[in-house]
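for the writeup, i need someone to sanity check this before i put it in the appendix. the sequnce is what the collaborator sent (i think, or maybe the updated version? ugh). structure was predicted straight from it, no edits. if anything looks off just tell me and ill rerun, i have time this weekend
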Amino acid sequence: MHHHAYLWTGPKPRFDQDALRRPPHPDPPPPDARPELLRRYREAAAAFRAAELPPLETAYWLLKPESLVQGTWDAAGGAAAWLRDRLAEFAPRFAAGAQREPARLAAHVTTAAARLATGGDVSLGFYLERPAFLSLALVTCSPHRVRRTLTCPLPS
């Protein structure tokens, strides 16, 4: 088991594009379906995998290109340290002052380490100034606890 880190920041309206954050249905249309339906399904599947946007379900980060992986750790502590460092980096830009409180940030890191150690995922989101949005995710891999059919995005 290991953990991959993902980070996305961008305009809130871009984050709100749910169609690009949702994977296509696992069952494609039948081969004899209307050509338009087959084309739309292929386009949706390609758009989801290529979009840098955070998926609606954290585990689906594993379907994204390996270039989006910000770091990989065998131990939960290393992944939690990455999270701690990203929170420290972005906290000055958090739109809500209460989210910048050191005790709250430390609690995120402690909870993340515990969750990762048991094979869970961590996903945090924060509104930033402008309005922008920050998404931080840590995904446990090989195998994923819930989505066991998802493969690791990095070559073995």
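The mean pLDDT is 93. Helices lie at 12-15, 18-21, 35-50, 76-90, 102-117.
thx in advance!!
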